[in-house]
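Hello forum,

I keep getting stuck at the same step: I have a sequence, I want structure tokens, and every attempt I make locally crashes halfway through. Rather than fight my setup again tonight, could one of you with a working pipeline run this one for me? It's a single chain of 195 residues.
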Amino acid sequence: MQRRLKTTSLLILILTGALVAAPTAMKGNASEKERKPQLRIQRSPEQARQWLEKEVRHELVMLPFYSVFDNLAFKVDGDRVELSGQVSRPTLKSDAERVVKNIEGVESVTNNIEVLPVSPNDDRIRLAVYRAIYGHTALQQYGLRSVPPIHIIVKNGNLTLEGVVGNEMDKNIANIQAKSVPGIFSVTNNLRVEK
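Reply #2:
Ran it on my machine without issues. Output:
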């Protein structure tokens, strides 16, 4: 008799627990948006643009194969982002588009990134210019960063320097060092001086 009473009591406890847990379990099927409160910060259009630019820049710089031989640029227009620049690996173009599309607030991405042609001569020039620029004592400080700020873009023997330097003298030294490398048809110095 006592055994039957214990079994019945245990069964009642289990059923009561199941009935109490049922509404909670049903909430578990709710979408993620319904369960988590949205903490959207109200921003002015200018603040939203600045925030989005910061996020896009961060995502592009964090790409695993982004190097000194690539140049990624972008323009933010509302919720649209336009990517541009040049990359030496085709996968970097698609990776850049993918990470930017995943940023909150980005509705569309226009990918105008140019994939540079494969050329052993261009590869030789890239390495020689890298050694010439980052081997110079005045410019070695820039080579210590995770993504050096002077980007070396070579297309069909033509060299373009992109990025940022600390002063006008460093910009001129980089230009002279690049022009000292044999086999380059032309050098375009688009380096900007940091303000």
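The chain has two domains: 45-115, 120-193. If your local run keeps crashing, start a new thread with the error log.
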